[in-house]
Design a protein that fits this description.
single chain, alpha+beta, 2 helices, 87 residues
Length: 87
């Protein structure tokens, strides 16, 4: 069973859009990544869900409440999130 993922975003963030594109690209190469359920939290709309999480930049990924990526995404960092989630 994959670990719980939280992805903190801002609606108009260009880096968040890049991260979503990278996730889709990786899912085509690694179909097993489709099993990973990602809770996407738009921090302006759901501020109660980000309380207690320490980060400055979006997108930020937490795998079981451990930060694994923050800020400008790269394909390697997004893939790390998936591999961490699948354990």
């Amino acid at each position: 069973m994959p670990k719980h993922i939280k992805m903190m975003i801002l609606e108009d963030c260009p880096y968040c859009k890049q991260a979503f594109e990278m996730m889709e690209e990786l899912k085509t190469v690694h179909p097993e990544y489709r099993a990973v359920d990602i809770e996407v939290i738009e921090e302006n709309r759901e501020p109660e869900k980000i309380k207690g999480y320490q980060y400055w930049y979006v997108p930020t990924f937490f795998v079981d409440d451990v930060k694994v990526m923050e800020g400008v995404p790269s394909i390697e960092l997004v893939e790390k999130m998936f591999t961490e989630a699948l354990g």
